[in-house]
Write a structure and sequence with these properties.
Layout: H1 2-22, H2 25-29, E1 38-43, H3 44-49, H4 60-63, H5 65-74, H6 78-81, E2 82-90, E3 93-100, H7 104-113, E4 117-119, E5 122-126, E6 133-140, E7 143-149, E8 174-178, H8 191-200, E9 205-213, E10 216-224, H9 228-249, H10 257-262, E11 265-269, E12 272-279, H11 281-290
Antiparallel strand pairs: 1-2, 1-8, 2-3, 3-7, 4-5, 5-6, 6-7, 8-9, 9-10, 10-12, 11-12
Helix pairs in contact: 8-9
Length: 292
């Protein structure tokens, strides 16, 4: 009986350890399509604790009729119920791994109400356009695997664990890994932002992260270059662009994107260029009230 009890305890401990590991950020990241994709991570719990998430409650996204209908029919609201999100913007679609509190029965009923269907917990729903098909399933009771693609079974891609090559998980509550090719797609952005992205296109790897710093947020950059000389040249270019922007603006407005970019500071560490932009709450509020 003692041996049996010990064996059961070991099995339960093993299952708990497996579940913890299987839903860790690194384990979830390994399920996302990552080659050539922009990977974004948002820790909603950390932003909620910092008081930064409340800004999202009044955005156009949260008040959009289709979103409000979804909230009413499923009792799910990302501002309150979502704890973290890992997203892959891939050429084949957009893939999400969402951790939070989900009413799976309500979600299946919502899918049926929208003309979709669920089979063995795998659900499919038509999107807002013919080439947008939504598929989702519970990877765990608290983790949703979801995809938006022209393939109605795209979420099934998230069943598979893929090799991840040396991707360190930043501690920041918000971060993005951006392939260099994506930096070339900057049409529609202000000229200053376009100039920064243009010079960053010479890096090998770009990480952008953000987190609270007292009453404001700080956005930081890690750009990895092929050599220390390339990193030194990139640092000089970023400093020059920022100095020109400061001269052009005169007195930067912290609630404006130009004012945020003008406050950037950069340094070189071997093959890396490190950047830092303080972001005042006024800019976040103007962003939430305008373009979101």
């Amino acid at each position: 009986m003692l041996l049996l009890g010990a064996g059961c305890a070991a099995i339960l401990a093993g299952v708990a350890l497996y579940r913890t590991h299987a839903s860790s950020p690194a384990a979830l990241l390994s399920r996302l399509p990552s080659e050539g994709a922009v990977i974004v991570s948002i820790d909603f719990q950390a932003l909620r604790r910092a008081g930064a998430l409340g800004i999202l409650g009044g955005t156009k996204v949260s008040q959009e009729p289709d979103y409000r209908a979804f909230v009413d029919q499923t009792s799910f609201d990302y501002v309150n119920d979502l704890d973290s999100a890992l997203v892959s913007f891939h050429t084949t679609g957009t893939y999400f791994l969402l951790r939070g509190r989900f009413d799976w029965k309500a979600l299946e009923e919502y899918a049926a109400h929208q003309g979709g269907n669920c089979h063995n917990t795998f659900c499919q729903v038509a999107g807002s356009m013919p080439d947008r098909k939504i598929s989702f399933f519970p990877l765990r009771s608290d983790v949703m695997a979801l995809a938006v693609s022209d393939n109605g079974y795209a979420a099934d891609e998230l069943q598979t664990v893929k090799p991840v090559q040396g991707t360190a998980i930043p501690a920041d509550p918000v971060w993005a890994l951006i392939p260099v090719a994506a930096l070339k797609e900057h049409a529609g952005l202000p000229p200053a932002a376009q100039a920064l992205l243009r010079v960053l296109g010479g890096a090998q790897r770009v990480l952008v992260a953000a987190g609270p710093d007292g009453k404001r947020m700080v956005v930081r950059l890690e750009a990895t270059c092929g050599s220390a000389a390339q990193a030194a040249a990139l640092t000089t270019e970023l400093r020059d662009i920022t100095a020109h922007l400061r001269d052009a603006l005169g007195t930067p407005d912290p609630a404006d994107l130009g004012g945020v970019l003008a406050a950037g500071a950069f340094e070189q560490k071997d093959k890396q260029v490190l950047g830092r932009w303080p972001v005042e709450r006024a800019f976040l509020e103007s962003l939430a009230g305008g373009s979101l």
